[in-house]
Protein backbone atom coordinates (compact mmCIF):
# COMPACT_ATOMS: atom_id res chain seq x y z
CA UNK A 1 0.00 0.00 0.00
CA UNK A 2 2.82 2.40 0.81
CA UNK A 3 4.44 1.72 -2.59
CA UNK A 4 1.09 2.31 -4.33
CA UNK A 5 0.65 5.58 -2.40
CA UNK A 6 4.09 6.79 -3.49
CA UNK A 7 3.38 5.80 -7.10
CA UNK A 8 0.03 7.59 -6.99
CA UNK A 9 1.58 10.70 -5.53
CA UNK A 10 4.33 10.74 -8.14
CA UNK A 11 1.85 10.29 -11.00
CA UNK A 12 -0.44 13.02 -9.64
CA UNK A 13 2.47 15.43 -9.27
CA UNK A 14 3.87 14.88 -12.75
CA UNK A 15 2.68 18.32 -13.87
CA UNK A 16 3.39 20.14 -10.62
CA UNK A 17 6.52 21.89 -11.74
CA UNK A 18 10.21 21.71 -10.85
CA UNK A 19 9.59 21.06 -7.16
CA UNK A 20 8.23 17.59 -7.96
CA UNK A 21 11.49 16.04 -6.97
CA UNK A 22 12.66 13.48 -9.43
CA UNK A 23 14.77 11.99 -6.68
CA UNK A 24 12.05 12.02 -4.01
CA UNK A 25 11.92 8.24 -3.91
CA UNK A 26 15.62 8.04 -3.32
CA UNK A 27 15.45 10.80 -0.73
CA UNK A 28 12.69 9.14 1.27
CA UNK A 29 14.33 5.77 0.83
CA UNK A 30 17.54 7.10 2.36
CA UNK A 31 15.53 8.81 5.10
CA UNK A 32 13.69 5.59 5.97
CA UNK A 33 17.02 3.76 6.03
CA UNK A 34 18.40 6.28 8.50
CA UNK A 35 15.20 6.11 10.60
CA UNK A 36 15.18 2.31 10.75
CA UNK A 37 17.78 2.00 13.55
CA UNK A 38 15.83 4.49 15.65
CA UNK A 39 12.62 2.50 15.23
CA UNK A 40 14.45 -0.67 16.08
CA UNK A 41 15.86 0.98 19.19
CA UNK A 42 12.38 1.38 20.61
CA UNK A 43 11.15 4.75 19.38
CA UNK A 44 7.53 5.54 20.08
CA UNK A 45 5.46 4.20 17.16
CA UNK A 46 3.91 7.01 15.11
CA UNK A 47 0.13 7.02 15.13
CA UNK A 48 -0.79 10.51 14.01
CA UNK A 49 1.55 10.51 11.02
CA UNK A 50 0.84 7.19 9.35
CA UNK A 51 -2.41 7.98 7.56
CA UNK A 52 -4.25 10.85 5.96
CA UNK A 53 -7.71 11.93 7.00
CA UNK A 54 -10.27 13.21 4.48
CA UNK A 55 -9.41 16.75 5.59
CA UNK A 56 -5.72 16.04 4.90
CA UNK A 57 -6.53 14.74 1.45
CA UNK A 58 -8.51 17.90 0.72
CA UNK A 59 -5.56 20.01 1.85
CA UNK A 60 -3.20 18.03 -0.38
CA UNK A 61 -5.47 18.66 -3.37
CA UNK A 62 -5.41 22.38 -2.54
CA UNK A 63 -1.61 22.29 -2.40
CA UNK A 64 -1.46 20.62 -5.79
CA UNK A 65 -3.75 23.27 -7.28
CA UNK A 66 -1.57 26.05 -5.88
CA UNK A 67 1.56 24.31 -7.20
CA UNK A 68 0.01 24.21 -10.67
CA UNK A 69 -0.84 27.90 -10.39
CA UNK A 70 2.67 28.87 -9.28
CA UNK A 71 4.29 26.67 -11.93
CA UNK A 72 1.92 27.99 -14.57
CA UNK A 73 2.92 31.55 -13.66
CA UNK A 74 6.60 30.58 -14.00
CA UNK A 75 5.95 29.09 -17.44
CA UNK A 76 3.97 32.21 -18.38
CA UNK A 77 6.83 34.62 -17.60
CA UNK A 78 9.23 32.24 -19.36
CA UNK A 79 7.08 32.38 -22.50
CA UNK A 80 6.79 36.16 -22.15
CA UNK A 81 10.57 36.40 -21.88
CA UNK A 82 11.12 34.30 -25.01
CA UNK A 83 8.53 36.26 -26.96
CA UNK A 84 9.92 39.60 -25.77
CA UNK A 85 13.46 38.66 -26.77
CA UNK A 86 12.23 37.45 -30.16
CA UNK A 87 10.23 40.60 -30.71
CA UNK A 88 13.23 42.72 -29.77
CA UNK A 89 15.39 40.91 -32.31
CA UNK A 90 12.70 41.55 -34.88
CA UNK A 91 12.85 45.28 -34.21
CA UNK A 92 9.49 45.58 -32.43
CA UNK A 93 10.70 48.51 -30.33
CA UNK A 94 12.29 49.49 -27.03
CA UNK A 95 9.36 48.24 -24.99
CA UNK A 96 10.51 44.67 -25.56
CA UNK A 97 13.55 45.32 -23.39
CA UNK A 98 11.37 46.36 -20.47
CA UNK A 99 9.14 43.30 -20.85
CA UNK A 100 12.10 40.96 -21.22
CA UNK A 101 13.80 42.41 -18.13
CA UNK A 102 10.63 42.04 -16.05
CA UNK A 103 10.04 38.49 -17.29
CA UNK A 104 13.67 37.51 -16.74
CA UNK A 105 13.65 38.80 -13.15
CA UNK A 106 10.29 37.10 -12.60
CA UNK A 107 11.79 33.77 -13.67
CA UNK A 108 14.74 34.27 -11.32
CA UNK A 109 12.45 35.12 -8.40
CA UNK A 110 10.14 32.18 -9.13
CA UNK A 111 13.03 29.71 -9.39
CA UNK A 112 14.69 31.02 -6.22
CA UNK A 113 11.48 30.75 -4.22
CA UNK A 114 10.72 27.33 -5.73
CA UNK A 115 14.12 26.17 -4.51
CA UNK A 116 13.54 27.61 -1.04
CA UNK A 117 10.08 26.06 -0.67
CA UNK A 118 11.12 22.71 -2.08
CA UNK A 119 14.21 22.56 0.14
CA UNK A 120 11.95 22.46 3.19
CA UNK A 121 10.45 19.11 2.21
CA UNK A 122 12.88 17.36 -0.14
CA UNK A 123 16.10 17.66 -2.17
CA UNK A 124 15.37 19.82 -5.24
CA UNK A 125 15.55 17.69 -8.39
CA UNK A 126 16.79 14.83 -6.15
CA UNK A 127 20.21 16.44 -5.79
CA UNK A 128 21.74 16.03 -2.28
CA UNK A 129 22.40 19.74 -1.92
CA UNK A 130 23.46 20.67 1.63
CA UNK A 131 20.79 22.21 3.88
CA UNK A 132 17.88 20.89 1.85
CA UNK A 133 15.13 18.38 2.75
CA UNK A 134 15.13 20.12 6.11
CA UNK A 135 11.95 18.63 7.58
CA UNK A 136 12.67 14.92 6.89
CA UNK A 137 16.35 15.18 7.84
CA UNK A 138 15.93 17.50 10.82
CA UNK A 139 12.66 16.03 12.11
CA UNK A 140 14.14 14.73 15.36
CA UNK A 141 16.01 17.98 16.02
CA UNK A 142 12.79 19.91 15.40
CA UNK A 143 11.05 17.68 17.93
CA UNK A 144 13.74 18.35 20.52
CA UNK A 145 13.58 22.08 19.84
CA UNK A 146 9.80 22.02 20.10
CA UNK A 147 9.99 20.17 23.41
CA UNK A 148 12.52 22.66 24.79
CA UNK A 149 10.40 25.57 23.57
CA UNK A 150 7.29 24.21 25.28
CA UNK A 151 9.21 23.48 28.47
CA UNK A 152 10.77 26.94 28.67
CA UNK A 153 7.79 29.02 27.60
CA UNK A 154 4.73 27.04 28.73
CA UNK A 155 5.82 24.79 31.61
CA UNK A 156 7.76 27.28 33.70
CA UNK A 157 6.62 28.06 37.22
CA UNK A 158 6.12 31.78 36.61
CA UNK A 159 4.09 31.26 33.42
CA UNK A 160 1.80 28.70 35.07
CA UNK A 161 1.18 30.86 38.14
CA UNK A 162 0.59 34.00 36.08
CA UNK A 163 -1.84 32.27 33.74
CA UNK A 164 -3.84 30.56 36.49
CA UNK A 165 -3.95 33.75 38.55
CA UNK A 166 -5.35 35.61 35.54
CA UNK A 167 -8.05 32.98 35.06
CA UNK A 168 -9.40 33.36 38.61
CA UNK A 169 -10.37 29.73 39.08
CA UNK A 170 -11.71 30.22 42.61
CA UNK A 171 -14.19 32.92 41.61
CA UNK A 172 -15.30 31.13 38.44
CA UNK A 173 -15.66 27.80 40.19
CA UNK A 174 -17.69 29.38 42.99
CA UNK A 175 -20.03 31.12 40.55
CA UNK A 176 -20.42 27.90 38.59
CA UNK A 177 -21.11 25.74 41.64
CA UNK A 178 -23.63 28.25 43.03
CA UNK A 179 -25.99 27.33 40.18
CA UNK A 180 -28.39 24.54 41.28
CA UNK A 181 -28.18 22.69 37.97
CA UNK A 182 -24.38 22.63 38.18
CA UNK A 183 -24.47 21.39 41.77
CA UNK A 184 -26.89 18.66 40.65
CA UNK A 185 -24.52 17.69 37.85
CA UNK A 186 -21.50 17.50 40.16
CA UNK A 187 -23.51 15.51 42.72
CA UNK A 188 -24.60 13.06 40.03
CA UNK A 189 -21.04 12.67 38.76
CA UNK A 190 -19.70 12.11 42.26
CA UNK A 191 -22.41 9.53 42.92
CA UNK A 192 -21.61 7.73 39.68
CA UNK A 193 -17.90 7.71 40.53
CA UNK A 194 -18.63 6.40 44.01
CA UNK A 195 -20.87 3.64 42.68
CA UNK A 196 -18.28 2.73 40.09
CA UNK A 197 -15.51 2.53 42.66
CA UNK A 198 -17.60 0.38 45.00
CA UNK A 199 -18.62 -1.86 42.09
CA UNK A 200 -15.03 -2.42 41.01
CA UNK A 201 -13.87 -3.35 44.50
CA UNK A 202 -14.31 -7.00 45.35
CA UNK A 203 -16.10 -7.59 48.64
CA UNK A 204 -13.77 -10.42 49.64
CA UNK A 205 -10.69 -8.23 49.19
CA UNK A 206 -12.14 -5.32 51.14
CA UNK A 207 -13.44 -7.59 53.88
CA UNK A 208 -10.01 -9.18 54.23
CA UNK A 209 -8.32 -5.79 54.41
CA UNK A 210 -10.82 -4.39 56.91
CA UNK A 211 -10.67 -7.50 59.08
CA UNK A 212 -6.89 -7.55 59.05
CA UNK A 213 -6.69 -3.82 59.81
CA UNK A 214 -9.07 -4.05 62.75
CA UNK A 215 -7.39 -7.17 64.14
CA UNK A 216 -3.89 -5.72 63.74
CA UNK A 217 -4.95 -2.45 65.34
CA UNK A 218 -6.60 -4.25 68.25
CA UNK A 219 -3.59 -6.52 68.77
CA UNK A 220 -1.16 -3.63 68.68
CA UNK A 221 -2.97 -1.48 71.24
CA UNK A 222 -3.78 -2.49 74.85
CA UNK A 223 -7.44 -1.84 75.55
CA UNK A 224 -7.60 -2.33 79.34
CA UNK A 225 -6.35 1.18 80.32
CA UNK A 226 -8.76 2.82 77.91
CA UNK A 227 -11.67 0.80 79.22
CA UNK A 228 -10.61 1.63 82.77
CA UNK A 229 -10.53 5.37 82.10
CA UNK A 230 -13.89 5.24 80.38
CA UNK A 231 -15.43 3.21 83.23
CA UNK A 232 -13.97 5.58 85.84
CA UNK A 233 -15.49 8.59 84.08
CA UNK A 234 -18.85 6.82 83.78
CA UNK A 235 -18.90 6.08 87.54
CA UNK A 236 -17.84 9.61 88.47
CA UNK A 237 -20.54 11.11 86.23
CA UNK A 238 -23.14 8.62 87.54
CA UNK A 239 -23.81 7.33 84.07
CA UNK A 240 -24.02 3.75 85.32
CA UNK A 241 -26.95 4.49 87.64
CA UNK A 242 -29.48 4.27 84.84
CA UNK A 243 -28.13 0.87 83.95
CA UNK A 244 -28.47 -0.23 87.60
CA UNK A 245 -32.02 1.14 87.71
CA UNK A 246 -32.90 -0.79 84.57
CA UNK A 247 -31.38 -4.01 85.92
CA UNK A 248 -33.26 -3.66 89.22
CA UNK A 249 -36.57 -3.04 87.47
CA UNK A 250 -36.10 -5.97 85.14
CA UNK A 251 -34.98 -8.21 88.03
CA UNK A 252 -38.04 -7.27 90.09
CA UNK A 253 -40.41 -7.90 87.20
CA UNK A 254 -38.73 -11.20 86.46
CA UNK A 255 -39.01 -12.36 90.08
CA UNK A 256 -42.69 -11.43 90.17
CA UNK A 257 -43.34 -13.34 86.94
CA UNK A 258 -41.29 -16.43 87.91
CA UNK A 259 -42.19 -16.98 91.55
CA UNK A 260 -42.81 -20.70 91.12
CA UNK A 261 -39.56 -21.27 89.25
CA UNK A 262 -37.50 -19.49 91.95
CA UNK A 263 -39.10 -21.41 94.84
CA UNK A 264 -38.82 -24.63 92.88
CA UNK A 265 -35.11 -24.03 92.36
CA UNK A 266 -34.61 -23.43 96.11
CA UNK A 267 -36.56 -26.52 97.08
CA UNK A 268 -34.74 -28.62 94.53
CA UNK A 269 -31.44 -27.75 96.16
CA UNK A 270 -32.54 -28.82 99.65
CA UNK A 271 -31.15 -32.05 101.20
CA UNK A 272 -33.20 -35.17 100.61
CA UNK A 273 -33.73 -35.92 104.29
CA UNK A 274 -35.56 -32.63 105.07
CA UNK A 275 -39.38 -32.70 105.14
CA UNK A 276 -41.18 -31.27 102.16
CA UNK A 277 -43.08 -28.65 104.14
CA UNK A 278 -39.76 -27.38 105.51
CA UNK A 279 -38.35 -27.09 101.99
CA UNK A 280 -41.45 -25.21 100.94
CA UNK A 281 -41.19 -22.78 103.86
CA UNK A 282 -37.51 -22.18 103.14
CA UNK A 283 -38.25 -21.57 99.46
CA UNK A 284 -40.98 -19.10 100.24
CA UNK A 285 -38.74 -17.30 102.70
CA UNK A 286 -35.83 -17.08 100.31
CA UNK A 287 -38.08 -15.79 97.53
CA UNK A 288 -39.63 -13.10 99.74
CA UNK A 289 -36.24 -11.91 100.97
CA UNK A 290 -34.85 -11.83 97.46
CA UNK A 291 -37.87 -9.91 96.22
CA UNK A 292 -37.64 -7.49 99.13
CA UNK A 293 -33.96 -6.89 98.49
CA UNK A 294 -34.48 -6.17 94.81
CA UNK A 295 -37.47 -3.93 95.53
CA UNK A 296 -35.59 -1.89 98.11
CA UNK A 297 -32.59 -1.57 95.79
CA UNK A 298 -34.90 -0.43 93.02
CA UNK A 299 -36.70 2.15 95.11
CA UNK A 300 -33.82 3.45 97.26
CA UNK A 301 -31.08 5.36 95.40
CA UNK A 302 -28.97 5.33 98.55
CA UNK A 303 -29.27 1.59 99.11
CA UNK A 304 -26.06 0.06 100.53
CA UNK A 305 -25.91 -2.41 97.66
CA UNK A 306 -25.77 0.46 95.21
CA UNK A 307 -22.89 2.01 97.15
CA UNK A 308 -21.10 -1.33 97.16
CA UNK A 309 -21.59 -1.58 93.41
CA UNK A 310 -20.15 1.91 92.98
CA UNK A 311 -17.09 0.96 95.01
CA UNK A 312 -16.68 -2.26 93.02
CA UNK A 313 -16.81 -0.44 89.69
CA UNK A 314 -14.37 2.20 90.94
CA UNK A 315 -11.91 -0.44 92.10
CA UNK A 316 -12.32 -2.37 88.86
CA UNK A 317 -11.66 0.78 86.80
CA UNK A 318 -8.50 1.38 88.81
CA UNK A 319 -7.35 -2.23 88.36
CA UNK A 320 -7.90 -1.99 84.60
CA UNK A 321 -5.49 0.93 84.51
CA UNK A 322 -2.84 -0.15 87.02
CA UNK A 323 -3.17 -3.81 87.98
CA UNK A 324 -0.88 -5.97 85.82
CA UNK A 325 -2.83 -9.19 86.34
CA UNK A 326 -6.17 -7.61 85.48
CA UNK A 327 -4.77 -5.98 82.35
CA UNK A 328 -3.23 -9.29 81.22
CA UNK A 329 -6.56 -11.07 81.67
CA UNK A 330 -8.34 -8.43 79.59
CA UNK A 331 -5.74 -8.81 76.81
CA UNK A 332 -6.19 -12.58 76.80
CA UNK A 333 -9.95 -12.15 76.64
CA UNK A 334 -9.55 -9.67 73.77
CA UNK A 335 -7.39 -12.09 71.81
CA UNK A 336 -9.86 -14.93 72.36
CA UNK A 337 -12.82 -12.80 71.27
CA UNK A 338 -11.09 -11.48 68.12
CA UNK A 339 -9.99 -14.97 67.19
CA UNK A 340 -13.50 -16.36 67.16
CA UNK A 341 -14.98 -16.97 63.73
CA UNK A 342 -18.22 -15.25 64.64
CA UNK A 343 -16.37 -12.00 65.38
CA UNK A 344 -14.41 -12.18 62.12
CA UNK A 345 -17.62 -12.82 60.21
CA UNK A 346 -19.18 -9.82 61.93
CA UNK A 347 -16.26 -7.62 60.92
CA UNK A 348 -16.45 -8.87 57.34
CA UNK A 349 -20.21 -8.42 57.14
CA UNK A 350 -19.87 -4.83 58.34
CA UNK A 351 -18.30 -3.87 55.00
CA UNK A 352 -21.13 -5.50 53.06
CA UNK A 353 -23.70 -3.58 55.06
CA UNK A 354 -21.82 -0.29 54.69
CA UNK A 355 -21.31 -0.85 50.96
CA UNK A 356 -24.98 -1.60 50.34
CA UNK A 357 -26.01 1.44 52.35
CA UNK A 358 -23.65 3.75 50.43
CA UNK A 359 -24.62 2.37 47.00
CA UNK A 360 -28.33 2.73 47.78
CA UNK A 361 -27.82 6.28 49.00
CA UNK A 362 -25.75 7.16 45.92
CA UNK A 363 -28.39 5.80 43.54
CA UNK A 364 -31.33 7.54 45.24
CA UNK A 365 -31.57 11.16 44.10
CA UNK A 366 -33.57 12.06 47.21
CA UNK A 367 -31.31 10.25 49.68
CA UNK A 368 -29.93 12.13 52.64
CA UNK A 369 -26.39 11.59 51.36
CA UNK A 370 -26.99 13.20 47.96
CA UNK A 371 -29.10 15.99 49.42
CA UNK A 372 -26.36 16.84 51.90
CA UNK A 373 -23.66 16.74 49.20
CA UNK A 374 -25.75 18.99 46.96
CA UNK A 375 -26.41 21.43 49.79
CA UNK A 376 -22.71 21.48 50.67
CA UNK A 377 -21.75 22.19 47.05
CA UNK A 378 -24.26 25.04 46.79
CA UNK A 379 -23.05 26.50 50.06
CA UNK A 380 -19.42 26.18 49.00
CA UNK A 381 -20.14 27.78 45.63
CA UNK A 382 -22.00 30.70 47.19
CA UNK A 383 -19.13 31.35 49.59
CA UNK A 384 -16.46 31.04 46.93
CA UNK A 385 -18.32 33.46 44.65
CA UNK A 386 -18.10 36.32 47.18
CA UNK A 387 -15.38 35.41 49.68
CA UNK A 388 -12.07 36.75 48.38
CA UNK A 389 -10.08 34.95 51.06
CA UNK A 390 -11.57 31.60 50.09
CA UNK A 391 -11.00 32.40 46.41
CA UNK A 392 -7.35 33.18 47.07
CA UNK A 393 -7.00 29.99 49.05
CA UNK A 394 -8.49 27.89 46.23
CA UNK A 395 -6.35 29.70 43.66
CA UNK A 396 -3.29 29.00 45.79
CA UNK A 397 -4.15 25.30 46.00
CA UNK A 398 -4.67 25.05 42.24
CA UNK A 399 -1.51 27.00 41.47
CA UNK A 400 0.53 24.92 43.88
CA UNK A 401 -0.76 21.66 42.40
CA UNK A 402 -0.16 22.83 38.83
CA UNK A 403 3.32 24.14 39.61
CA UNK A 404 4.21 20.88 41.34
CA UNK A 405 3.10 18.88 38.30
CA UNK A 406 4.93 21.00 35.71
CA UNK A 407 8.12 21.30 37.75
CA UNK A 408 8.22 17.66 38.78
CA UNK A 409 7.20 16.15 35.45
CA UNK A 410 8.48 18.79 33.03
CA UNK A 411 11.03 16.37 31.64
CA UNK A 412 8.42 13.67 31.09
CA UNK A 413 6.05 16.12 29.39
CA UNK A 414 8.66 17.48 27.00
CA UNK A 415 10.02 14.00 26.33
CA UNK A 416 6.52 13.01 25.27
CA UNK A 417 6.79 15.61 22.51
CA UNK A 418 10.31 14.69 21.43
CA UNK A 419 9.71 10.93 21.57
CA UNK A 420 6.44 11.25 19.67
CA UNK A 421 8.05 13.32 16.92
CA UNK A 422 10.99 10.91 16.80
CA UNK A 423 8.58 8.02 16.28
CA UNK A 424 6.83 9.64 13.32
CA UNK A 425 7.60 8.31 9.87
CA UNK A 426 9.66 10.93 8.05
CA UNK A 427 7.83 10.56 4.74
CA UNK A 428 4.34 10.80 6.20
CA UNK A 429 5.41 13.63 8.49
CA UNK A 430 6.76 15.61 5.54
CA UNK A 431 3.63 15.03 3.48
CA UNK A 432 1.31 15.94 6.30
CA UNK A 433 3.16 19.14 7.18
CA UNK A 434 3.26 20.07 3.52
CA UNK A 435 -0.50 19.45 3.29
CA UNK A 436 -1.08 21.88 6.16
CA UNK A 437 1.27 24.72 5.15
CA UNK A 438 2.16 23.96 1.53
CA UNK A 439 -0.70 26.02 0.07
CA UNK A 440 0.53 29.17 1.81
CA UNK A 441 4.10 28.40 0.78
CA UNK A 442 3.07 28.33 -2.88
CA UNK A 443 1.99 31.94 -2.51
CA UNK A 444 5.64 32.66 -1.77
CA UNK A 445 6.48 31.37 -5.24
CA UNK A 446 3.72 33.45 -6.80
CA UNK A 447 4.79 36.53 -4.88
CA UNK A 448 8.40 35.83 -5.81
CA UNK A 449 7.45 35.80 -9.48
CA UNK A 450 5.47 39.02 -9.25
CA UNK A 451 7.93 40.87 -7.00
CA UNK A 452 10.87 39.65 -9.08
CA UNK A 453 9.24 40.94 -12.24
CA UNK A 454 8.58 44.33 -10.69
CA UNK A 455 12.09 44.49 -9.27
CA UNK A 456 13.60 43.53 -12.61
CA UNK A 457 11.52 46.13 -14.39
CA UNK A 458 12.54 48.81 -11.86
CA UNK A 459 16.22 47.92 -12.15
CA UNK A 460 15.99 48.01 -15.93
CA UNK A 461 14.27 51.38 -15.88
CA UNK A 462 16.82 52.85 -13.45
CA UNK A 463 19.73 51.44 -15.43
CA UNK A 464 18.37 52.91 -18.67
CA UNK A 465 17.76 56.23 -16.98
CA UNK A 466 21.28 56.35 -15.56
CA UNK A 467 22.70 55.23 -18.87
CA UNK A 468 20.85 58.00 -20.66
TrEMBL record:
Residues 1-60 are annotated as: Disordered. The keyword Disulfide bond does not apply. It holds the Pfam family DUF445. The chain crosses the membrane at residues 68-87. Coiled coil: none annotated. GO terms for cellular component: plasma membrane. It comes from the Bacteria. Keywords: Membrane, Transmembrane, Transmembrane helix. Residues 34-48 have a biased composition (Low complexity). This is Membrane protein.
